[in-house]
Amino acid sequence: MMRLVYLCLLLLPFFSCKRTETADKQKASPIDSTPHQPSYTMDCKMLLNEARRYDSTLLAQNEINDSLARIAIKAFTGYAAYCHDEAEAPIYLIKTASVAKAINNIPQAKLALETVVNNYPGFDNMPAALFMLAQLYDEVSYLNDEHEAARLYRKIISDYPNTEWVIVAKGALAMIGKSDKEMLQAFRKKSK
After folding, report:
1. b/e sequence 74-89, b meaning 16+ C-beta within 10 Å
2. For the chain, how many structural domains are there in total?
């Protein structure tokens, strides 16, 4: 429960919308650089503008619309796939993960974050991508793999020791395997 609270607080600046309808289980779309339609204009500037437009639209909503979220995910991944060498490509993959998670498309969120981790080793916000991926593994209702979550938290701690993400990763690592009750007790004890 506390892990979910931490995640919500961390993602609030990225995405502050809530779901309005229940999503069916969805499969992740592969992120590749092949066009989805033959008439698709392959212009990074146009794709970036489209991604920004959907990002602004989603941020302006009070409640997330699943169909609009899926369209935004296509715009974000389309830009990131075709314009993979652009500095904003990994940012839009992280946005993809945030939106996909909001509509309960966990496979898409995982795929987007793994793409950042595997394809953008010099990305300035790599600790954030690793933490978001660790949270997917850490959550029982998502990927439910505490060993992988712990490995990712440790990677943040060892590879990014001079970032604010170390504190968050250490806190999350300390909570792995604990029940909600145990986490609440630890939080209360620490806040005294």
Report:
1. bbbbbbbbbbbebeeb
2. 2
- Is 133 contained in some domain? yes
Three-class SS state of 144 = coil
Q: Could you tell me the two tokens for 67?
A: 């169909």
Q: Give the Cα separation of 34 and 38 in Å (integer).
A: 10
3-state secondary structure at position 77? helix
pLDDT in tens, 42-77: 589 999 999 999 999 999 999 999 999 999 999 999
Phi, psi of 64 (to 5 degrees): -80, 140
pLDDT value at position 23? 41
Long-range contacts of 30-33 (CB under 8 A, 24+ apart): 30/111, 31/77, 31/80, 31/81, 31/93, 31/111, 31/112, 31/115, 32/81, 33/81, 33/82, 33/84
Residues 134 and 183 in one domain: yes
The verdict on 96 and 129 lying in the same domain is no
* Residue 180 shares a structural domain with residue 136: yes
Is this structure's pTM higher than 0.90?
no
**73: in domain:** yes
- Whole domain around residue 88: which residue ranges? 41-104
Separation of first and last alpha carbons in the chain:
20
